[in-house]
Design a protein that fits this description.
The two termini are 46 Å apart. Helix 14 (519-528) links the parallel strand 28 and strand 29. The chain is built from 16 helices and 37 strands. The radius of gyration is 25 Å and the shape is globular. Residues 1-20 have low confidence and may be disordered. The protein is 20% helix and 35% strand. The strands form seven sheets. Strands 7, 8, 9, 10, 13, 14, 15, 16, 20 and 21 form a ten-stranded antiparallel beta sheet that branches. An eight-stranded parallel beta sheet has the order 27-26-25-24-23-22-29-28. Strands 30-31-32-37-34-35 form a six-stranded antiparallel beta sheet. With 654 residues, it is α+β, with helices and mostly antiparallel strands. The structure holds calcium ion.
Length: 654
């Protein structure tokens, strides 16, 4: 441990007698490669991060602004403590199951100018830094309002960005934004203004050229705080923590966070590495949070069918839902999602019959709800059932009685504290009634897989519905699904909303625009995209119009992962992941470029192992799609396998 105190005469003269010294502390990861250095001076407190002695974050501001005091300058360091953290835990709904977290922790205890206490806690594991602010009572003051933060992230000059803009408030369809459904730009310079001038949503990925990669995010946010994002870039300060916009939730509710004392802010996380491997494999979003409550029921991961993606609004009727329950049953899937307006189109009595029919076929229903409320104009019902406790619990008791096992709640109002509290309240109530929860039109989940054991996944991505809506987004699918493993899906489960086997975005599978990806790409996407209840958007026609071996594969898609490894890739271009389920390893790759990609990669199965390979033959001249195929192969004596992934194609090895 490196502890240094030394005098700075200039600041001594400036500040007089109270605070006379620059105070520096540092904390390194267990392997010693990742180092955080904190420098407290009267004019401000900063931290910097290096990995293997290369700068990952330049000195960047720390501190928060509250109604008790400004905790960003004139801080006096009172005490420092260090300890090692070494614990294991299990996760059911994320990229890995048995997780071992080892970190060194530094707690720096400060007094503000007015004498209020604040701790800054850093946890440093081999590739992740997490830090948060902790506050305590003073002289009977037992509450506090946080109006903003000094917290900043200054990246080195050569950095390029892979970040997603925050939208304006109350924009988009029926004034439902922000809902984390904007477009990532790859390899952009830092000083480009964000698309709406509102900064960027977490997680944010940065490429430091030859020095490596940095991903910045936050975790542990629940009803105690607001959901934050990053500001636009400022040459002097870097990116700073930004609070919700005033206009969110139709202007209702403040942009600040009200906290009882003692309290902690969410953790800010910085994942670093010389390659992308630590970014894709990180579990820091879960490592530093704790379960908010224990599971009251035995929750099961699984797959779901979803009529709305292709058959759209008209499919929310009894007979069409029977058709999609039958698809789920034929595929051995556990769930079928009934989307919006089931209350008016099918009716509650109809849903009870439908749920009984589904259960007889071994399928459980999940039901869609509008989160509204008073925060947007989304007209789909049922609404006013999830925004308050009494109707919500009445609704959930009914669902439990009729055997419904999950809800999808859509169209939230932004990141203000009352909305973060609503997410928490829905999850906590749902746990009483055995319901797993998927959020759409929503914020990024921040550690929720571990905090809330019945949380499954969130949209918070420009998801598959857009592939249906426009040809442009259908063309973007390859870019999207090779971007998210390195960013959005690296920090939280992502409900992309479906592997699509229809080649045209229509019920008849002939009209409207086409799908641009190969069948193997779509099958591999069901492995690359991680969500514990995974949508496989099989259509009734897919039971007969796709090859038998594709259907057989899709029947076996695992959803609980013991382990995840990045084998190769570059954000927005291609990705090859290995995931292990209790059935063994499965490797899945996607190529979003316009050229065939040949890679020789080490297979996690080991040397001289017989494997089954799903890939695409090179597209025949004039053909819109390459032909998918299944064949047997073998890893070589070093455990390597040579793979070719066609443009907009995929590969699976198992
Ligand atoms: Ca959406």
């Amino acid at each position: 441990m490196n502890k240094r105190l030394f005098l700075l005469p200039a600041t001594l003269m400036m500040m007089g007698s109270i605070q006379t010294e620059a105070q520096q502390q540092s904390i390194a990861s267990p392997d010693g490669k990742l180092l955080v250095e904190v420098d407290n001076r009267p004019e401000g407190i900063t931290y910097s991060v290096t990995y293997d002695q290369k700068p990952m974050l330049l000195p960047s501001a720390l501190g928060v602004v509250t109604n008790n005091d400004d905790f960003g300058k004139a801080l006096t360091l009172k005490d420092t403590q260090t300890r090692t953290i070494d614990h294991t835990y299990q996760l059911r709904q994320a990229k890995a199951t048995d997780i071992h977290y080892q970190a060194n922790e530094l707690t720096m205890s400060f007094a503000s100018a007015k004498g209020f206490p604040m701790d800054i806690v850093f946890r440093v594991s081999n590739n992740d830094v997490a830090f948060r602010y902790q506050f305590d009572r003073k002289d009977g003051v037992s509450c506090m309002t946080v109006t903003g933060e000094h917290t900043a992230f200054r990246l080195p000059e050569q950095t390029t960005t892979f970040i997603c803009p925050q939208s304006d408030a109350m924009g988009g369809w029926m004034r439902t934004k922000p809902s984390y459904e904007e477009e990532y730009k790859p390899d952009a310079p830092m000083d480009t203004r964000s698309a709406y001038g509102q900064g960027y949503t977490f997680p944010c990925l940065f490429h430091l050229g030859n020095d490596g990669w940095v991903m910045v995010s936050e975790t542990g946010t629940r009803g105690q705080y607001v959901g934050c994002h990053l500001s636009d870039y400022d040459a002097a300060r870097g990116y700073t923590i930004a609070f919700p916009m005033e206009g969110e939730s139709n202007g209702f509710g403040g942009t600040m966070a009200g906290m009882p004392l003692p309290c902690s802010t969410p953790w800010r996380t910085i994942t670093t590495g010389t390659s992308l491997k630590p970014i894709v494999e990180t579990t820091v979003a879960f490592d530093v949070v704790e379960p908010v409550y224990e599971p009251k029921h035995d929750y099961k991961t699984g797959r779901y069918t979803w009529s709305w993606l292709v058959w759209q609004d008209n499919s929310i009727n009894y007979d069409d839902q029977v058709a999609f329950i039958d698809v789920a049953a034929a595929m051995g899937y556990e769930y079928c999602l009934v989307d919006a307006c089931w209350d008016t189109n099918i009716g509650r009595e109809g849903i009870e019959r439908l749920s009984k029919y589904a259960q007889e076929k071994g399928v459980a229903l999940m039901l869609w709800y509008n989160s509204n409320g008073a925060w947007n104009d989304a007209p789909q019902s049922p609404f006013h059932r999830m925004d308050k406790s009494a109707p919500r619990r009445e609704e959930m008791a009914w669902m439990e009685r009729i055997g419904v096992k999950g809800i999808k709640v859509d169209f939230f109002g932004g990141d203000k504290q009352h909305t973060m509290q609503l997410y928490e309240d829905i999850l906590a109530d749902a746990n009483d009634f055995g319901l797993q929860v998927i959020f759409h039109g929503c914020t990024l989940p921040r550690g929720w897989e571990r905090m809330f054991p019945n949380f499954v996944g969130s949209e918070a991505v420009l998801a598959s519905e857009n592939t249906y809506f426009t040809e442009y987004h259908a063309q973007q699918e390859g870019f999207q699904l090779t971007m998210h493993p390195f960013c959005r899906n690296a920090v939280a489960s992502m409900d992309w909303g479906g592997t699509i086997m229809n080649r045209y975005m229509s019920k008849d599978n002939k009209s409207r625009h086409r799908r641009f990806t190969s069948d193997t790409f779509e099958m591999a996407a069901s492995i690359v995209n991680q969500c514990a209840i995974q949508c496989i958007a099989m259509q009734p026609n897919n039971l007969t119009d796709i090859p038998q071996f594709e259907r057989d594969f899709l029947r076996t898609v695992p959803t609980q992962w013991l382990e995840t490894r990045l084998l190769d890739g570059y954000p927005g271009r291609y990705v090859v992941l290995a995931r292990r389920s209790k059935e063994g390893w499965i490797v899945a790759g996607l190529n979003a470029t316009t050229e065939p990609l040949t890679l020789e990669l080490p297979m996690p199965m080991g040397a001289r192992k017989a494997v089954t390979i799903y890939d695409d033959a090179a597209a025949k001249k004039g053909a819109l799609w390459p032909e998918s195929r299944m064949r047997e192969g073998k890893t070589d004596k070093s455990g390597n396998l040579k793979l070719t992934i066609q443009p907009n194609g995929g590969i699976i090895v198992k």
